[in-house]
């Protein structure tokens, strides 16, 4: 689904740089490479875990706080299942809230990142299966409802994010990308010290 609304344009522009940094991060870049190894794949899953859990928790809290109904389909359980199937202990999640949702625009910004990532996972899932085979645990990247979630997100976003809320949405979306970038950097730094 191509998004051409003013809200879509604002969110894309506000997150363009952070999105590019995330896509080109050295921990994630192998996921779309023909040279993807099992170790690269595992490292990416471990590095994404904390941010994914924290983002979904913030969205769930925000939906509850704002009393809004949205068909949230969490991906963190699939990520947990993948890591468990690979006999990996789950990373410890920092419980300090980094993302807050007090207004609808903030919720829309966080959902934009969550649902956009789901949509982008299709490319990764294809490469994981091509490079590592169909038996590798890949539920996190292979969730089938990605297109439906993206399509459901936009009417919800347009309804709950009028022009006055767009600055809050842009700030929240950028904060969600920063959460993932920080998580990747922290994981990479710990791995280089032999702590991950």
Automatic annotation (TrEMBL):
SUPFAM superfamilies for this protein: Heme oxygenase-like (SSF48613)
Pfam entry (one): Heme_oxygenase
InterPro entries assigned: Haem_Oase-like, Haem_Oase-like_multi-hlx
Signal peptide: none
Name under which the protein is recorded: Biliverdin-producing heme oxygenase
Taxonomic lineage of the native organism: Bacteria, Pseudomonadati, Pseudomonadota, Gammaproteobacteria, Aeromonadales
